[in-house]
Amino acid sequence: MEDNGYRKRKKLRQNGVVRPLLTDLYQITMAYAYWKSGKKKDHAVFDLFFRQNPFQGEFTIFAGLEECLKFLENFHYSESDIVYLRETLPSTIESEFFDYLKNLTAKDVTVHAIEEGSVVFPRVPLLRVQGPLIIVQLLETTLLTLINFASLMATNAARYRIAAGKQVSLLEFGLRRAQGPDGGLSASRYAYVGGFDGTSNVLAGKLFNIPVRGTHAHSYITSFTGTHDLHTKMLAHRVTGEEHDMLELCQQWRKELAKHLETLTEEASDGELAALIAFAIAFPDGFMVLVDTYDVKSGSDVKSNGGPTKFHGSRNSEPHMHWPLQRSGLLNFCAVAMALNNLGYKALGIRIDSGDLAYLSNKARETFQLVSEKYDLPWFAKLTIVASNDINEETILSLNEQGHKIDCFGIGTHLVTCQRQPALGCVYKMVEINGQPRIKLSQEVAKVTMPGCKSAYRLFGANGHALIDLLQRSVENPPQVGEKVLCRHPFEESKRAYVIPTRVEELFKVYWENGKICQTLPTLEGIRDRVQTSLKTLRQDHKRNLNPTPYKVAVSDELYNFIHDLWLQNAPIGELF
């Protein structure tokens, strides 16, 4: 089915919620008004674009194209849809209109689009949708909802990947905090597209072939009150199959390790030890566990006593904040890990979900290195340290400055809800009707649309980086490598520059025409790879977190004059009294 990141064509499975009625009512009322006024044969062109990059950044990742194509492929009003519309719309609507809707498909629509996973910028259309006015109007809301969140989510994930760096793994843990089941699935999918390595969302793993990851919750640890809760204590050696008493082996190791880790076995929780032993017996090849459940100094559960569950501060924090990890969790983990080693297994690592993550990750790494050197186990020093706990982009950047030793971040709320900016703000604007250009004027220049059918190109400099995106009228000849191109700001006359590109990339491809998808669509892995490849074409200053350099989007000299001539034709002339 799949080859080099691309899939063979077959009818794509569509989200059952995405159907023609997933729209705003005014799309249907406009459709009737068009129909009633005899505009069934009118032909229109719409641009779908956004006006500002999200998260105070200077780039956006385009995502959601495949879902748009699925929607077009399956566009059809069902019998029940027609029944509902007859009951809901005013009784004055003619019956023939519902017959018209019943037979309506997207076969006469043509969609030009930028490749999914590409880095994109404000004002450059992501989609150019053209076809009969009524059908292309009816597509508006659904296309916007499919692209807005997908692109926002992929961009958010890409920013986390840039902040974390290439060597650190990123896991999406946000299903429980997402905006409903559909939001959770979309978040998992597009977090993976943006550069995350896996998800805790099992259904997303099944549907989208995303690696699934997870350990256990604090409730698992607290369900064990002592070693008497261990109903199974025996584990077979990985090679010989001989059964060994894990409780006895772990208690021996805990006693020995306590001397080297300068702690007391009495300060470690027996309930926690029992929970870890039980988990090790259940998953001897997958022993990755939480180690910060108990504050043994006060004898309480950190997660239930208002402990420091959202603290990421400096190493000068209060010592009591580190008791759970230093006195109980690490000791118990190392004891069980060494017992597993005796039986031919290798532990995977730990997860820290509270406290000073920079300090605790360093403390954990020091402990692992100490055990590694003491018992000549090189792999022990490289055990994985996973950190979670309400992490956002700024948290990761701060931890980088503090010199953390974290191998993997589990990120939920801030990622999947895009708390820093909850919407991208894509719009869908008519730019041509029956071959005549259309412009929307506004006192806010940012809201003035660029009329007519346009082509888009990305021009590259000698160093291989993208220099500028150029919009032209579709009737113009494309820019050529090695030839001087005049690039103009669309609305500020004095802002202009010549560019001599070393490479020119045409951004639009025809993805939908004559009722079918006409490009080979990439797999999710292919889109994910495209994101990273596309981001590499940008200079680092465009991608940095603080005060990034704006990327330039320009228009050709011909398009500039076309816009301003049309503007003058449509702008009212005032009177002075």
From TrEMBL:
Key words of the record: Ligase, Phosphoprotein, Pyridine nucleotide biosynthesis, Transferase
GO biological process, one term: NAD+ biosynthetic process via the salvage pathway
Entry EC no(s): 6.3.4.21
Boundaries of every Nicotinate phosphoribosyltransferase C-terminal domain copy: 454-562
GO cellular component, one term: cytosol
Residues annotated as domain Nicotinate phosphoribosyltransferase N-terminal: 21-148
Domain of life: Eukaryota
Function field: Catalyzes the first step in the biosynthesis of NAD from nicotinic acid, the ATP-dependent synthesis of beta-nicotinate D-ribonucleotide from nicotinate and 5-phospho-D-ribose 1-phosphate. Helps prevent cellular oxidative stress via its role in NAD biosynthesis.
Protein name (Swiss-Prot/TrEMBL): Nicotinate phosphoribosyltransferase
Species in which this protein is naturally found: Megalurothrips usitatus
Lineage: Eukaryota, Metazoa, Ecdysozoa, Arthropoda, Hexapoda
